Amino acid sequence: MSTTTVRPARTPSGTPTTGRPAPISAARLQRALLVVLLTAVAVLVALAFMLPTVWMLLGSFRPGSSVISSVSPLGWNTLVPDTWTLDNYAALFGELRFGRSMANSLWVALCSVVIGLVLSVPAAYVLSVLRFRGREVVFAMLVVGFMIPFEAIAIPLAQVFTAWNLNNTYLGLILPGIGNGLAIFNMRQFFLGIPASLREAALIDGASDFRVMTRLYVPLSVTTLINSALLIFLAQWSSYLWPLLVISDEAKQVAPLAIARTYTDTEFNFGQMFGGALLISVVPALLLFFLQRYFAQSVSRSGEK
Q: What pLDDT, in 10s, does the model give residues 85-108?
């Protein structure tokens, strides 16, 4: 009777397999530990950045007088309130009329976006596509213009608006935000990347420059338009100095000014202040959350140009 010898299977490298898992090399183990360590550090950094926001959120449900008194000594009570209340939000939307102020901010920001894009798109098209003497000089002046801090010209500009009876008007709030040089610069850089042959073919077919801009350049630059709209919206939504200079009528005050009414010379209500600050941050946070991919694409493409 013959016997059959079973030989162990061999791997492609020629080494026999025994059915047991291969030992983890020291290099792989070191890389795995490094990934775990870096992930833990990233989580801790994220929590550190989120902590002030969480403190503001929970502090907005705390009685205003106890927000600062709970800071010392540091403890669990510093973050989590002992007494929960909605009085801060009731005061914001009641006597302080914070809802009306947020509506004013939203109206001013949306109008600025619409008018600003209507003006910025043709300006970017002219500076990127059309050839004329002095084009580079105009573009250089545009760049220098948006690099000058608005605070440097705010006071004399407010005096001009007051002389024109534009103070305490929505138009006075909107006009400074529609000429956004950064938005024009952003769109010009994208328009420069569109092949000139597309425009030349459209012109040969009989299209005007206005038709080329609206039917060719604008549809190709939706991402850049959204990014420019975000720049204009965020600038107007967070504006504080300019409304402070030109608006004294409470019916037309914007949300950042409404927060200033939560404190006086002798009293600070940090609960109301925290609640108002969080409500103001919700709108741009939602916009950036839903439109972040357009913003990131526009920034990367502008860098490539």
A: 888 889 888 888 899 999 999 999
Determine the Cα–Cα distance for residues 284 and 282; give it in Å rounded to an integer.
Answer: 6
- Strand-pair partners of 268: 263
> Are 199 and 129 spatial neighbours (Cβ–Cβ below 8 Å)?
yes
Cβ contact 191:129 at 8 Å:
yes
Which residues have CB under 8 Å from 97's CB, separation 6+?
Answer: 250, 258
Q: Is-contact 188 146, C-beta < 8 A?
A: no
Which residues, 6+ apart, have CB-to-CB distance to 57 below 8 Å? 274, 278
List, for residues 217-232, the tens digit of each pLDDT value: 998 888 889 889 988 9
Q: What is the CATH number of domain 96-265?
A: 1.10.3720.10
Q: Which of 291, 252, 260 is nearest to 277 (CA)?
A: 260
> For residue 213, what are its two tokens?
């801009």
Low-confidence spans in the chain with pLDDT less than 50 = 1, 298-300, 302-305
pTM for the structure as a whole? 0.79
Domain ranges of the chain: 28-80, 96-265
CA distances from 264 to 12, 133, 190, 267, 274 (A): 80, 56, 48, 5, 15
Token pair recorded at residue 220: 């190709």
CB 78 within 8 A of CB 97: no
With CA atoms as reference, report the closest residue to 120 among 189, 196, 181: 181
Residues 100-122 as b or e (16 or more Cβ within 10 Å = b): bbbebbbebbbbbbebbbeebbb
Which two three-digit tokens encode residue 183?
């938005």
Half-sphere exposure of 298 (CA within 13 A, CB side): 25
The per-residue pLDDT for 107 is 95
